[in-house]
Task: inverse folding
């Protein structure tokens, strides 16, 4: 287990310069994610065009893993159909929580950089927060999302 | 007589602690974490155990376990002697007048909840006021909020300065004819501030206000004398003072405890039960329903023995040197901000680092075998005051070394470089 498996260059870069890091006044949907133990807090905004995610952005504050994960999320779901984003959510969940390296990170592109998080169980909830928050936004869920204390996030 | 002796005034006439030797008493300190020697700097969350404590607990289970206050058989008598002996050991440790003033509970949190539900619920009226401070751990906030909901009482908060000290003048302004209780941290868990409780207590006492101190962070690090402090209740946990988890202490003045209703019903807290009427047991047993954590009390007594053998003054002096070293070393790191800079502190260093979230600092340090706490430290109002979602917190114990301070600083510098 090497620290560089967790903090890969892509992660450090997206933490330093998060993409699509802005509020979206004309968003169709948005949801909040908050992990009180860490203090990670973010809002994910979505603008839809039919069944397609036309625009997606986020704002908030958190650790490098949560910020980079949210930044990578926005890049990877923008312009995609909702159904495809939800499939990606399921794949990411498996990538982050499966006990072995059974998920091939290569087709995931840059998102594959998060595969190292699996080796750091305490940090899985940081990487998954934005995905659960996007899911909540797409389902117009009103309550804030939390990935702490959720057995589904335990590897 | 001073209730608290400042570390700087200690150690005269006594040889300093032989830390290398002390470390050999703690088996866990020999282990590796992530391939590196463990540097355990999370003592404010929970401390480690010397072999003497582990042995006392094992010996109890191997030779003397039975239920207490029950049987006529030998083991029950031995277990009772050990349990009640532990009570007297704790009594002398904090200089209570009688073992009847020592109630065994699960920990500081339960002690405070006991006072809130037994003393508070039976006495407080609408518009009565409870004073806490901005420094408190959630355990000294939430039980009073529950009590306020139940009774219509109000919570008032002593404000804090940018250094993490309490504003005494503002406290005087909060005291009124409605004030019933002062519930104050003796030492802040998130910042390490030693609250100069004497003048706060004196003003409350003058007005007939009941006084509770949360001593969870104080007892392991300084001499505590409940009579000199002149408080009504004092609460602390075994697991922060080298004892086992699951046991703690509520000290209460005997007359006050006697006048309070029980808060849990069951065995051991009664003298006689019929379906018409139950006669409650004497204090402290009135507050100890059910089979207690006997092995926990035995372990706590062994921890008290251990700490007293080392000398609480020598412990405080050694920890103060670690604090001074850590302050000096960490302050030199560019972008690092110390949170909590009170003049009088226990060996707790809370900090933030520009561009690096505390959680990432925690992971990077763990990778070097260094255990610290990151997050809000169960003191969210403190975090809000300083405008941070979380801090990184290194908290030292007497078994920590100056080399570990250097390792901490080097690892924080590494974290800074990784995110620069």
Result:
């Amino acid at each position: 287990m090497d620290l560089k498996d967790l903090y890969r260059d892509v992660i450090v870069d997206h933490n330093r310069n998060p993409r699509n890091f802005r509020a979206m006044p004309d968003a169709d949907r948005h949801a909040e994610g908050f992990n009180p133990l860490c203090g990670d807090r973010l809002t994910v905004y979505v603008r839809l065009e039919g069944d397609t995610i036309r625009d997606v952005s986020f704002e908030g504050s958190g650790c490098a893993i949560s910020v980079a994960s949210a930044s990578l999320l926005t890049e990877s779901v923008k312009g995609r159909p909702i159904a495809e984003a939800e499939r990606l959510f399921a794949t990411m969940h498996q990538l982050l929580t499966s006990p072995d390296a059974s998920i091939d990170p290569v087709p995931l592109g840059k998102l594959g950089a998060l595969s190292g998080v699996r080796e750091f169980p305490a940090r899985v909830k940081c990487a998954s927060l934005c995905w659960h928050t996007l899911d909540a936004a797409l389902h117009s869920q009103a309550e804030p999302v939390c990935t702490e204390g959720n057995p589904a996030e335990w590897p | 007589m001073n209730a608290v002796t400042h570390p700087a005034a200690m150690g005269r006439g006594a040889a300093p602690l032989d830390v290398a030797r002390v470390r050999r008493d703690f088996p866990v300190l020999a282990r590796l974490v992530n391939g590196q020697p463990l540097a355990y700097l999370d003592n404010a969350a929970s401390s480690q155990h010397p072999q003497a404590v582990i042995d006392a607990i094992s010996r109890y289970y191997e030779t003397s376990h039975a239920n207490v206050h029950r049987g006529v058989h030998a083991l029950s008598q031995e277990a009772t002697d050990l349990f009640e002996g532990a009570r007297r050991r704790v009594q002398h440790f904090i200089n209570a007048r009688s073992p009847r003033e020592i109630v065994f509970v699960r920990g500081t949190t339960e002690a405070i909840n006991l006072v809130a539900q037994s003393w508070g619920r039976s006495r407080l009226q609408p518009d009565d006021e409870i004073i806490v401070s901005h420094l408190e751990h959630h355990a000294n906030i939430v039980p009073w909020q529950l009590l306020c909901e139940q009774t219509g009482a109000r919570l008032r908060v002593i404000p804090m300065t940018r250094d993490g000290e309490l504003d005494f003048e503002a406290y005087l302004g909060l005291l009124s004819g409605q004030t019933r209780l002062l519930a104050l941290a003796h030492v802040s868990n998130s910042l390490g501030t030693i609250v100069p409780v004497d003048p706060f207590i004196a003003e409350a006492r003058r007005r007939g206000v009941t006084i509770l101190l949360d001593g969870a962070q104080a007892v392991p690090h300084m001499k505590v004398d409940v009579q000199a402090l002149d408080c009504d209740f004092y609460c602390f946990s075994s697991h922060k003072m080298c004892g086992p988890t699951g046991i703690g202490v509520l000290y209460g003045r005997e007359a006050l405890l006697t006048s309070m209703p029980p808060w849990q019903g069951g065995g051991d807290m009664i003298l006689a039960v019929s379906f018409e009427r139950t006669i409650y047991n004497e204090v402290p047993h009135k507050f100890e329903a059910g089979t207690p954590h006997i092995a926990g009390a035995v372990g706590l007594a062994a921890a008290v023995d251990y700490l007293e053998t080392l000398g609480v003054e020598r412990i405080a002096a050694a920890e103060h040197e670690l604090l001074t070293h850590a302050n000096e070393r960490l302050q030199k790191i560019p972008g690092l901000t110390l949170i909590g800079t009170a003049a009088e502190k226990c060996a707790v260093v809370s900090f933030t680092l520009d561009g690096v979230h505390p959680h990432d600092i925690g992971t990077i340090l763990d990778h070097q075998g260094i255990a610290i706490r990151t997050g809000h430290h169960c003191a969210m109002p403190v975090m809000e005051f300083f405008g941070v979602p979380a801090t990184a917190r290194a908290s030292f114990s007497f078994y920590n070394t100056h080399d570990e301070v250097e390792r901490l600083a080097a690892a924080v510098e590494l974290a800074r470089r990784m995110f620069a």
